[in-house]
């Protein structure tokens, strides 16, 4: 939690969703892209690699959101509860579609509205 003095002398409360940030770093490290295996130590090279990985990561999040909106997430996740993050939903669905030669739509239409009964990390 972060407290900050707002306009007119009022105290504003800003809440940082730590679980969402942890999910993103988990997806970039262990659950998908595996950034630490690159072994890069130079700051500029590592920042370029991170930028190159975050761009498809945003697409995976948009694709996972489309899967949840259209009810296709149950093909790769449990039907009674959510265990996978949006990234893992999209990653697993894409792997399954490519493995079994299933059709899927490639588009980039991010959805910033609220999904009913949805948590970004699957918790």
What report would you give on this structure?
- The chain has 123 residues and is mostly helical.
- It has one domain (2-99).
- The chain has helices spanning 18-29, 43-69, 86-99, and strands at 2-5, 11-14.
- A hairpin with a 5-residue loop joins β1 and β2.
- α2 (43-69) packs across α3 (86-99).
- It is elongated and about 45 Å long.
Topology:
Layout: E1 2-5, E2 11-14, H1 18-29, H2 43-69, H3 86-99
Antiparallel strand pairs: 1-2
Count the E strands.
2
Provide the β-strand percentage band.
Answer: 5-15%
- Can you count the helices? 3
What gross morphology would you assign?
elongated
With strands numbered from the N-terminus, the spatial order across the biggest sheet is 1-2
- The overall number of domains is 1
Output the structural class. Answer: mainly alpha
Radius of gyration: 17 Å
- Poorly predicted tracts of residues: 11-16
**Percent range for helical residues?**
40-55%
Mean pLDDT: 75
- Main β-sheet, in a few words? 2 strands, antiparallel
Distance between the termini: 20 Å
Q: What is the succession of H and E elements?
A: EEHHH
Features:
7% strand, mainly alpha, single chain, 123 residues, two-stranded antiparallel sheet, 3 helices, elongated
Summary, kept brief:
The chain has 123 residues and is mainly alpha-helical. It has one domain (2-99).
């Amino acid at each position: 939690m972060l407290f900050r003095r707002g306009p007119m002398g009022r105290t504003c409360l800003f809440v940082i969703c730590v679980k969402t940030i942890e999910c993103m770093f988990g997806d970039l490290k262990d659950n998908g892209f595996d950034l630490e295996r690159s072994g890069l130590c130079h700051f500029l090279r590592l920042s370029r690699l991170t930028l190159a990985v975050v761009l498809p990561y945003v697409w995976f999040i948009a694709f996972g959101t489309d899967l949840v909106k259209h009810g296709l997430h149950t093909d790769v996740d449990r039907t009674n509860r959510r265990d996978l993050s949006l990234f893992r939903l999209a990653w697993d669905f894409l792997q399954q579609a490519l493995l079994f030669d299933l059709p899927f739509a490639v588009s980039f239409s991010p959805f910033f509205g609220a999904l009913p009964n949805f948590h970004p990390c699957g918790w």
